[in-house]
Amino acid sequence: MSKNKKLFTTPLLKNNPITVQVLGICSCLAVTAQLKPAVVMALSVTVVVALSNFIISLMRNTIPPRIRIIVQLVVVSALVILVNQVLMAYVYDVSKQLSVYVGLIITNCIVMGRLEAFAMSHKPWESFLDGVGNGLGYGIILVILGFFRELFGSGTIWGYPVMEKLGMYKIGYENNGLVIMAPMALILVGVIIWIQRSKDKELCEK
Amino acid sequence: MKSGGLEMKNFSNKYIFIYAAALVAVVAVILSVVAMGLKDRQQENVRNEKMQTLLAAINVATDRDGAEALYKQYFTSELTVGTNGEVVSEYDIAADNMVKGEVRAFAINLKDEQNKEKSGAKGAFPVYLFQKDGKTGYVIPTQGNGLWGPVYANIALDEDFNTVVGVTFSHDSETPGLGAEITTEKFQAPFIGKQILDESGNVVSIAVKKNADPNGAHEVDAISGGTMTSNGVSAMLGDDLMRYQAFINNMLQGQAVEAVAENAADAPQEEANEKEVSNE
How far is B174 from chain A (nearest CA, A)? Predict the structure, then answer.
């Protein structure tokens, strides 16, 4: 039981997909200019990693190693399209928000990375937990980035004009345009990695 | 792969081929069945959303479910026009009746028509007529390319075919926080009151550019960090509104003629009905 719990918790910090495994950087730059898309993306990736981990783990003994990457890709793409189709029919607004990210989810290194490194060699339930953990670990970083980038880049949080309500513009404060740009997201990821490694010496390379 | 013994298993080529084929077939069947089963619902959503954006362009807020009723309430007819200004088809919304031609403007795929024009054939472009607060106006839908994918806009014009009374923008895949800002009130509001015609009645459209003059009749401010999307919107408005030049000329001349005729006769109450009268 505690082993399963560990599967779930280590990817949140100690083995975080973005800051430690350094996967999924591309999408974390693309969707974190605002908090809301960051949260949508985080949830979508969590669902997709967990389910594809589960399915691939069920199939793992039948998959010929030589074509395993293609098999994984087919399963992931089918899953994403399937979810999007259902959303389009029943929760159209969510699907509209998600449609931008469908491509980004399918090609997200975290999904393929977890399938290769974990689901291909572990039981379905463990793989499912690993997927949820990694999805959430990815999500935490996305939400942190989205929060700071939206706050300092647009002066809002979840669309709510915080800076304006605080009267910051009146005393000469201006939004920082650089924060909205992708390079600043990368710098922020760097800062998070820096903070994390200075707290946790185990992560530092010798 | 630490455990699992995957490397030890030997799969024959035959197995690999059959496995791959079976997997693809199963996935294809699942996806097609789901897509077919959900098609009606999805199309209804898309239809209602189209009505919703048309209503939004004339500043009528609604949710998707209520869109159809309000659409019938505010919009009077749908026209498709050719680039020579001729009316190709006309659909009376209240009577649910094709007055002329066969294709409803609502059912037209704008992209197809644009491609037809590009390849030298003749396209037909939609115009939606609406009545709001006792005034007639026109909504022109446009479609162009942003940075990552298509961008769309509905431009609502006053009865003079010149002043913008409302506008909505949407997109498929522009970057959130940058290009995607075209859907925000902040970007859209400055369009209201701008003009698409110059003094001599030529379509000059509205340019989206940096440091636009707020008092300029033909320009609005671009999105910082969303230059490519802003340029795309600018090009879209220019290209698509230009197609209506001949139609606008015809309509404005028609209005002038009608105004003269009305002055000669009398009956100011006929003014509101003139569209229906000319339909008959």
Answer: 8
Position B157 confidence tier, pLDDT thresholds 50, 70, 90: very high
Contact yes or no for B226/B125 (Cβ under 8 A): no
Cβ neighbours of A176 in B, within 8 Å? none
Tokens 């431009």 map to which residue? B155
Q: Per-residue confidence at B61, pLDDT binned at 50, 70, 90?
A: confident
Chain A residues 98-127 with CB within 8 Å of chain B? 99-100, 120-122
User: Rounded to whole angstroms, how far apart are CA atoms A105 and A102?
Assistant: 5
Q: What is the mean pLDDT of residues B222-228?
A: 86
Whether the predicted pLDDT of A54 surpasses 90: yes
Q: Is A61 on the interface with B (CB under 8 A)?
A: yes
Question: H-helix or E-strand containing B178?
Answer: none
Strand order, beta sheet including B97-100: B97-100, B87-92, B75-81, B125-132, B135-145, B150-157, B164-171
Closest by Cβ to B178, choosing from A33, A82, A100: A33
Predicted confidence (pLDDT) per residue in B77-95, tens digit: 898 888 888 888 888 888 8
In B, residues 214-233, which contact A (CB 8 Å cutoff)? 224-225
* B278 pLDDT higher than 50: no
Mean pLDDT computed over A183-190: 91
Neighbours of B105 (CB within 10 A): 22
Touching check for B38 and chain A: CB below 8 Å? yes
Least Cα distance to A20 among A113, A105, A103 occurs for A113
Lookup result for tokens 């970083």: A141
Question: In chain A, where are the structural domains located?
Answer: 2-199
pLDDT digits (tens, 9 = 90+) for A163-173: 888 888 888 88
Q: Which two tokens stand for residue B13?
A: 């080529």
- Please report which helix (H) or strand (E) contains residue A3, including its range: helix A2-9
What is the ipTM metric for this complex? Answer: 0.75
Chain A interface mutation, best of B12, B29, B45, B50, highest count of A Cβ atoms under 10 Å: B45
